[in-house]
Amino acid sequence: MRVFVTGGTGFVGANLVRLLLAEGYTVRALVRPNSQLDNLQNLDVEIVKSDLNHPELWQQMRGCQYLFHVAAHYSLWQKDREALYQHNVLGTRNVLAAARKADIARTVYTSSVAAIGVGPGGTIVDETYQSPVEKLIGHYKKSKFWAEQEAMQAAGDGQDVVIVNPSSPIGAWDIKPTPTGDIIVRFLRRQMPFYTHTGLNFIDVRDVAKGHLLALQKGKSGDRYILGHQNLTLKQLLDQLAEITGLQPPKRSIPACLPLSVAWFDEKILTHFGKTPSVPLDGVRMATQTMYYDASKAVRELGLPQSPLSVALQNAVDWFLSRPGFTQI
Hints:
Layout: E1 2-6, H1 11-22, E2 26-31, E3 46-49, H2 57-61, E4 66-69, H3 81-101, E5 106-110, H4 113-116, H5 138-156, E6 161-166, E7 168-170, H6 179-188, E8 194-195, E9 199-204, H7 205-218, E10 224-227, E11 230-233, H8 234-245, E12 252-253, H9 257-268, H10 281-287, H11 296-302, H12 309-322
Parallel strand pairs: 1-2, 1-4, 2-3, 4-5, 5-6, 6-10, 7-9, 8-12
Antiparallel strand pairs: 9-11
Helix pairs in contact: 1-7, 3-5, 6-12, 8-12, 9-10
């Protein structure tokens, strides 16, 4: 039971690797030569250094029965368009081709609800829904859409590929952090005086990891499964964080036009003067949407766990506070 994992140094990947080891799998993890390996320290993992687009990647996969392709480039900055398509789309194409050549029996590809898009007027959508690609905000979402098309095409050509679409995971090992983790960090540092009217689907990251393993064991090739749990407004999430930490949640909201104006000026004007923008325009545009999802297919067909978000939030808070050098204002 040897598995090949890409993206093991990241948030979802680190939790998946830990689960696989606990379940008795032998893990071979692909890392870039300059990757930060903190999330894999002291784990019994075979490390191979290469990249998603390496023409001989299949040789690194030889001897493995299964593949979890979790790795993805995440950025909401418009300047990173080329890197997003290079890593997410072309990288996925190369990884799937390598898996075929290495005789990988089954691949679980980590897509995202970003590839599905947002329901009209903030309605809750499931795997049967698809936003037109031109309606997806930003090149990150578009790149995940096209990467998912690569996985579907491979499955259509007879390769055994199951697709999972995590929503917004919460928990430990969020090292970068992700946008959800950044909300928690800024809350802990009392850097969230206001909130915006938006909504997301949240899930314990350990349930996301379990969903990957269940997809390997029970998923149908060519199908996609939303790995999500609870739909909450941002205000509801912040109120839960307040209960856990004892900190005061923000009391006032701000209209979307204010952060949109700041982000537009940052990214369209300041960058021309060599300044580093502070707020990605696409990120603010996404925050004006309500992104709600229905994960009942994964619960019904895979047995996806639905652990309490309060536990996931507590784990995330404890992990961030335990990080060396983390300070609260």
